[in-house]
Amino acid sequence: MTTPPLLHVLNSITAGFPDLKKFKNKNVLVIGGFTTKFVSDDDPAGIYAADCIKNLALKFGAKSGKTAAIPQQVSSIDIVCDYVAEFEELAENPDLKEKFEIVIVLEGLEKVQNPVTALQAVRNLSAENGQIILFFRTSAELGTKYRLDFFEDNWRYSDHDIEDFFKADKNFKSLSFSEKEFILMTFKKSAKKFTPDGEENFFNCRVGKKIPASQGKNLGFFREYTELSKVAEIEPTDKVEHNYLDKYEFVLQKFKDRTFKILELGIFDGGSLRMWKRYFPNAEIFGVDIDPRCAKFEEERIHVEIADLSSEENLKKLIPIGAEIIIDDASHIWSHQLKSLFTLFPALPSGGIFIMEDMETSVNPDLFPGFNDIKISAYDVCERVARVVMSKRPDAFNDALSNLITRVGMATEFIAMIKGSCILIKR
User: Fold this and answer.
1) Are 132 and 106 in contact (CB under 8 A)?
2) Are residues 335 and 395 in the same domain?
3) DSSP letters of 363-421?
4) Beta partners for 353?
5) Which domain holds residue 262?
6) pTM
7) So what's the pLDDT on residue 382?
8) Which pLDDT score is estimated for 85?
9) N or C: fewer beta carbons within 10 Å in the chain?
10) What total number of domains does the chain contain?
């Protein structure tokens, strides 16, 4: 059995690399560490890697943190990133004006859009003469030998890459693990001003070689579909980090200037609704969420409904909206996803599009416990729908869902699985 990568970090820090005594009276920023839990006989529920590091830091006299990346997660101790791939945005967070004497990056460097932006942000968060501790994967292992979270890896690093990038800094030390597949590196930020040229080379997972960091976004079949991603830079949404938007634009661009209605289940902070409004200038945007606080996101061309989407009756009430595009980005609970598919997809007009998002809850139940409230996952249902589409024959399983699956499959012109989502187009 392979050792969980973050366990290497915990064992190394416990063993004195870096020296825990240096945590005394320091304010510590921990980035990442919320995709891995350590379980023991004493703690069968497990503890997140980030909490392990935090507890060690506090044990050795570290100061408490003051804020969090996501406002509702503010506590007296934790500084938490909701999504590890967003940590470069921390440098621009107005709540993080303070510089940290120790910055620890447990995960996320592999998943950023641009390594230069992310690494520079890490340095900006560090106080002068502060200690920076980075844990990262190398190009020695590019597969899925180790469990990954739901973001795709884009980059790999070497200790030489990091030293070259932070050439203004000093006291570099590193340890490697698992035949150099992982490196834990520590160094001290100097007082020197430092501005990267933006063209530093890093190993890119898509092409299997080093390329300038700025070229990373210009790869793949969907590289030309950038307009929706640019809109999301103005109206931020986590759909960026999930790597959905170029694929969505490929499918949705024909609606760009049409007058139509789009319905999104799940609102969160309203970012997606605003993104759709800006991208579709003639569309009416409808959002539904169980949280009454989401009502504040209503504005011109954005309509908000407050409803429990686990209720089939509430879903039926959405049919008169007449949406041509429906996105299910709500609870991601299996039964809820199936109810929305079976209730709302048949109501789409010919050429209408249904997108079921964040299906990682189906295929990674170990990472997302509590979503599997029924025996069959949303992914398994979509796979059976795809078989109906391909075979042009009714679902063969002859169970309680067969008729519903057959109805959706026979009405589907096109079905595609992308990373994390399923897209269905109505005949």
Assistant:
1) no
2) yes
3) H-TTTSTT---SSS-HHHHHHHHHHHHHHTS--SS-STTHHHHHHHHHTEEEEEEETTE
4) 325, 425
5) 227-426
6) 0.76
7) 98
8) 40
9) N
10) 2
Query: Which of 176, 196, 218 is the last residue before a domain boundary?
Result: 218
Structure tokens at 383: 């796979």
| Residue 91 confidence (pLDDT) | 53
Q: Are residues 30 and 140 in the same domain?
A: yes
Residue 281 confidence (pLDDT): 98
Strand 284-289 and strand 261-265: pairing?
parallel
Beta-ladder partners of 201: 212
Q: Which residue has the tokens 């590196």?
A: 185
Instruction: Give 91's contacts (C-beta < 8 A, 6+ positions apart).
Output: 120, 121, 124, 125
**Final residue before a domain boundary, out of 166, 192, 218:** 218
The predicted pLDDT at position 93 comes to 59
CATH of the domain at 88: 3.40.50.150
Q: Are strands 37-38 and 47-48 parallel, antiparallel or unpaired?
A: antiparallel
Regions of the chain where pLDDT drops below 70:
1-4, 34-35, 63-97, 143-151
pLDDT at 87: 52
Letter for the amino acid at 116? V
pLDDT for 302: 98
Same domain, 171 and 86: yes
Q: Say which residue the tokens 């041509």 belong to.
A: 324
Spatial CB neighbours of 29, under 8 Å, sequence gap ≥ 6? 65, 79, 100, 102, 103, 104, 125
